[in-house]
C-alpha cells in the first residue's frame, strides 16, 4: 500500500490518501466549541449507550461536577468542569468575590493527522478509515498496550479484565450508514459539531473572531493548526483557557516523528556492541 | 440545535441556527466597580493542570516483566556476540556460557513479554505484519528470529549434535544479537512518556553499553577464569561506558531528568551507579583474583539490570505527574513565540 512507511510522517498529506485509499469521502471530524458547553454530559451518555461501553466505576471525585476524571478505555467522551474566579469576557459573574466562571469542555480522541497510536500498533489493529479517522479493530488487538503511552493526549487505554485497547471510533458504524456520531447527535447546544473537517475549520475561525469581537480574549482554537506537532487534529476545540487547564497537553507531538533518527542511533549503537565485543576479543591476550 | 445529515454522496452540514453570545455584556448590570472577580495581578504561574491529573495515560506495562525484558534482551543480544567471539578464538568454556546465557535470556524475555500481554493467546498477532513505524513490531521479528538461532546454537553446543548447523546458528544469533540489545531503546523512547522520549538520543547508547556490561558480567560469573580476558576488558569498558552515557542522557534530557532523582527510580538509579562503579573496579582486579572476577560478574549484572529498572520507574513517575508533560511543552511554546514562530495553541 504505502511504499515508504514514514511517508505520512514526512508529508502534510490527506491522511486517508496517505493510508492508501484511492477514492475516499472527505475527512470528517469534530469541532467542539467549549464556549457553549453546558456540562449536561449527554455526549458521555449517548456514547456509552451507542457503543456499549461498560460502566467503569461510579465514584465521587470532588472535582466539580466531573466524576469521570478523564478519557480511557471506558470513557470516550469526557466532560471537564473547571471553576475559576474570573469573569468571562464582559459578563457580570456574581457578587464580589463570589464571581466565578465555569469552564466545561467535552474531550474526545483527536483522530490525529499523524496518530502515534496507529504508528506504533504492532499488529495493525489500529487503522485509518476512509473518513481519515483512527479506529481499533478489537478482534486483532492483542493487548500489547503500546498505543497507550504513545498517545500524547492520554486518550486510549486498556480495558480491565479484557486487556485490549479501546477508544472513540468517531462512530465508524454510524458514519458508514450516513448518520452523525452519537455524541454530536445528542449535544443540545451544538457544542459538539460534526462535519467535513475543512468546513469545520472555517466555522471555527468565524466563531473565534466572533468571540474575540465580543471581548472574550481568552478564546483560542486547539488542534486546528495542520502545522502542529501531530499535523492537526481531526477533532479540535475552541477553548477559553490554556489547554493544560483542561488536562490537554499544550504542545503535543507525535513521537514517531523522531523515530527515523532513533532507528539510526539504534543501528549505530548495535554496530558499537558488535565492534566493542570484537575488539575485546582482538585486544585480549588471555 | 441543528440537524446534521450525512449522506454518502453530497453532504449538507447546516450551521447552528444562531450563535451564542458567550461573554458578551447582556445588559444586566450590578452596582459596584466596573470589573469584578479576581483580576490577574501577577503573571500566571508557569504550571497549571486539571486537578493535578496526568495528561498522558500511564503505560500498562508492569514491573518486573518489562524492565526485565529490557535487561534480558540486552544480555541475550550481547552474549550471542560474545559466543561467536569465543568460538572463533577457541574459548570453548566461555562460548558455552555465552550461548546458554543467550538462549536462556531469550527464552525468559519471551516469557516476560507473553506474561505482560493482556491476552497471551494473541501473541502471534505480533507477526501478522511488519511495521517499521512500530519498534514493537520490528522487535518481535528480531526476537522471533533470534530466539530459535540462539537456542539451536546452545543445543548444539551442549549435545555436540550437528556442529556445522550449530556454527551457522551461532553466527546468525551474533548478527541478530546487537539489534535485539538496542532496539528496546527505540521501543520505550517512541512514546509520549517524558523521561523516555526526552532521552531518545542517548538511550540507544545507554542500552548498548548496558548490554555489553551484562554479557561480560555473565561471562565473569560463570565462565572459566582462564578464558575471561575479553570479559574482564569488556566488563570494565562496558560498565564505564554505561555510567558515562547515563550521565550524558540525564544531562541532555532536560526537566525529565528530575524523575531519576525522586522516589523508587532514585534508589534504583543510585544502586545502578554504585554497582557499576564497583563492578568496573572488580573487573580490573579480576586479572589477579578469581574471587574478584566472580564478584565483578555479579556487580555488573546487577548494575545493568538496575539501570533498566531505574529507567522504567523514572518513566512511570514522569507519566503520572502532569508537570513533566506540561512544563517542557509550555517552555517550548514560549521559546517558539519568542523566536517569532507560530504559537501552536494560539
Ligand atoms: S488522540 Fe491519541 S488515541 Fe486519538 S488518534 Fe491521536 S494518538 Fe491516537
Task: Give your account of this protein's structure.
The complex is a heterodimer of chains A (about 290) and B (about 350). The termini of chain A are far apart. Chain A has 2 domains: about 5-255, Alpha-Beta Plaits (2-Layer Sandwich), CATH 3.30.70; about 255-285. Chain A is α+β, with helices and mostly antiparallel strands. In chain A, strand 4 and strand 5 form a beta hairpin. In chain A, the strands form 4 sheets. In chain A, strands 8-1-10-9 form a 4-stranded mixed sheet. Chain A has 9 helices and 10 strands. Chain B is mostly helical. In chain B, helix 1 (about 65-90) runs antiparallel to helix 9. Chain B has a single domain (about 55-320), classed as Formate dehydrogenase/DMSO reductase domain (Formate dehydrogenase/DMSO reductase fold). Classes of the chains: A alpha+beta (about 290), B mainly alpha (about 350). The complex binds iron/sulfur cluster. Iron/sulfur cluster binds near residues 110, 112, 115 and 117 of chain A. Iron/sulfur cluster binds near residues 115 and 156 of chain A.
Secondary-structure map:
The complex is a heterodimer of chains A (286) and B (346).
Chain A: H1 7-10, H2 15-18, E1 28-33, H3 42-51, E2 77-84, E3 101-108, H4 116-120, E4 126-128, E5 134-136, H5 147-150, E6 157-158, E7 165-166, H6 172-176, H7 182-186, E8 192-196, H8 197-213, E9 220-222, E10 235-239, H9 259-283
Parallel strand pairs in A: 1-10
Antiparallel strand pairs in A: 1-8, 2-3, 4-5, 6-7, 9-10
Chain B: H1 65-88, H2 92-116, H3 135-159, H4 163-189, H5 194-197, H6 203-222, H7 229-252, H8 263-285, H9 290-320, H10 322-338
Helix pairs in contact in B: 1-2, 1-4, 1-6, 1-9, 2-3, 2-6, 3-4, 4-6, 6-7, 6-9, 7-8, 7-9, 8-9
Bound molecules: iron/sulfur cluster (SF4).
Amino acid at each position: 500500500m504505502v511504499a515508504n512507511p514514514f511517508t505520512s510522517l514526512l508529508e502534510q498529506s490527506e491522511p486517508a490518501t496517505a493510508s492508501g485509499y484511492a477514492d475516499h469521502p472527505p475527512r470528517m471530524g469534530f469541532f467542539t466549541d467549549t464556549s457553549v458547553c453546558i456540562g449536561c454530559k449527554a455526549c458521555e451518555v449517548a456514547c456509552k449507550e451507542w457503543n456499549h461501553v461498560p460502566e467503569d466505576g461510579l465514584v465521587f471525585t470532588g472535582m466539580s461536577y466531573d466524576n469521570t476524571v478523564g478519557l480511557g478505555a471506558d470513557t470516550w467522551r469526557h466532560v471537564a468542569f473547571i471553576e475559576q474566579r474570573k469573569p468571562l469576557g464582559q459578563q457580570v459573574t456574581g457578587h464580589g468575590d463570589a464571581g466565578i466562571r465555569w469552564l466545561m469542555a467535552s474531550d474526545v480522541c483527536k483522530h490525529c493527522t499523524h496518530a502515534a497510536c496507529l504508528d506504533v500498533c504492532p499488529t495493525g489493529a489500529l487503522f485509518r478509515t476512509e473518513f481519515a479517522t483512527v479506529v481499533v479493530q478489537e478482534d486483532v488487538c492483542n493487548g500489547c498496550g503500546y498505543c497507550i503511552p504513545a498517545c500524547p493526549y492520554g486518550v486510549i487505554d486498556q480495558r480491565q479484565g479484557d486487556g485490549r485497547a479501546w477508544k472513540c471510533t468517531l462512530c465508524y458504524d454510524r458514519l458508514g450508514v450516513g448518520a452523525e456520531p452519537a455524541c454530536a447527535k445528542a449535544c443540545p447546544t451544538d457544542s459538539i459539531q460534526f462535519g467535513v473537517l475543512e468546513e469545520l475549520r472555517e466555522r471555527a475561525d468565524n466563531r473565534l473572531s466572533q468571540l474575540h469581537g465580543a471581548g472574550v480574549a481568552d478564546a483560542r482554537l486547539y488542534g486546528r493548526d495542520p502545522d502542529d506537532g501531530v499535523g492537526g487534529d481531526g477533532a479540535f476545540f475552541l477553548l477559553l483557557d490554556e489547554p493544560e487547564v483542561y488536562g490537554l497537553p499544550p504542545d503535543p507531538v507525535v513521537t514517531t516523528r523522531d523515530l527515523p533518527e532513533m532507528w539510526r542511533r539504534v543501528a549505530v549503537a548495535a554496530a558499537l556492541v558488535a565492534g566493542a565485543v570484537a575488539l575485546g576479543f582482538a585486544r585480549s591476550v588471555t | 440545535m441543528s440537524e446534521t445529515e450525512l449522506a454518502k454522496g453530497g453532504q449538507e452540514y447546516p450551521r447552528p441556527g444562531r450563535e451564542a453570545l458567550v461573554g458578551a455584556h447582556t445588559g444586566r448590570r450590578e452596582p459596584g466597580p466596573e470589573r469584578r472577580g479576581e483580576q490577574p495581578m501577577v503573571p500566571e504561574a508557569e504550571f497549571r493542570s486539571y486537578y493535578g491529573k496526568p495528561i498522558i495515560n500511564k503505560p500498562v506495562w508492569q514491573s518486573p516483566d518489562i524492565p526485565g525484558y529490557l535487561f534480558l534482551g540486552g544480555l541475550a543480544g550481547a552474549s550471542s556476540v560474545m559466543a561467536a567471539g569465543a568460538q572463533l578464538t577457541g574459548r570453548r568454556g566461555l562460548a558455552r556460557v555465552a550461548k546458554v546465557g543467550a538462549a536462556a535470556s531469550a527464552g525468559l524475555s519471551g516469557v516476560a513479554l507473553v506474561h505482560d500481554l493482556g491476552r497471551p493467546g494473541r501473541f502471534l498477532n505480533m507477526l501478522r505484519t511488519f511495521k517499521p513505524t512500530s519498534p514493537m513490531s520490528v522487535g518481535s521479528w528480531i526476537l522471533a528470529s533470534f530466539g530459535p538461532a540462539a537456542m539451536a546454537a546452545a543445543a548444539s553446543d551442549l549435545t555436540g549434535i550437528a556442529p556445522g548447523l550449530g556454527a551457522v546458528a551461532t553466527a546468525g544469533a551474533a548478527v541478530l544479537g546487537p539489534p535485539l540489545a538496542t532496539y528496546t531503546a527505540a521501543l520505550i523512547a517512541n512514546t509520549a512518556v517524558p523521561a523516555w522520549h526526552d532521552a531518545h538520543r542517548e538511550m540507544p547508547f545507554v542500552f548498548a553499553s548496558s548490554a555489553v556490561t551484562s554479557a561480560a558480567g555473565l561471562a565473569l560469573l560463570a565462565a572459566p577464569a582462564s578464558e575471561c580476558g575479553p570479559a574482564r576488558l569488556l566488563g570494565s569498558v562496558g560498565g564505564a561506558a554505561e555510567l558515562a552515557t547515563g550521565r550524558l542522557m540525564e544531562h541532555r534530557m532536560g526537566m525529565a531528568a528530575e524523575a531519576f532523582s525522586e522516589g523508587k527510580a532514585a534508589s534504583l538509579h543510585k544502586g545502578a551507579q554504585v554497582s557499576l562503579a564497583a563492578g568496573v573496579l572488580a573487573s580490573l582486579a579480576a586479572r589477579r583474583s578469581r574471587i574478584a572476577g566472580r564478584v565483578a560478574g555479579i556487580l555488573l549484572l546487577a548494575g545493568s539490570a538496575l539501570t533498566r529498572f531505574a529507567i522504567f520507574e523514572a518513566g512511570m513517575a514522569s507519566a503520572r505527574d502532569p508537570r513533566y508533560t506540561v512544563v517542557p511543552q509550555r517552555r517550548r511554546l514560549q521559546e517558539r513565540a519568542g523566536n517569532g514562530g507560530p504559537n501552536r495553541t494560539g
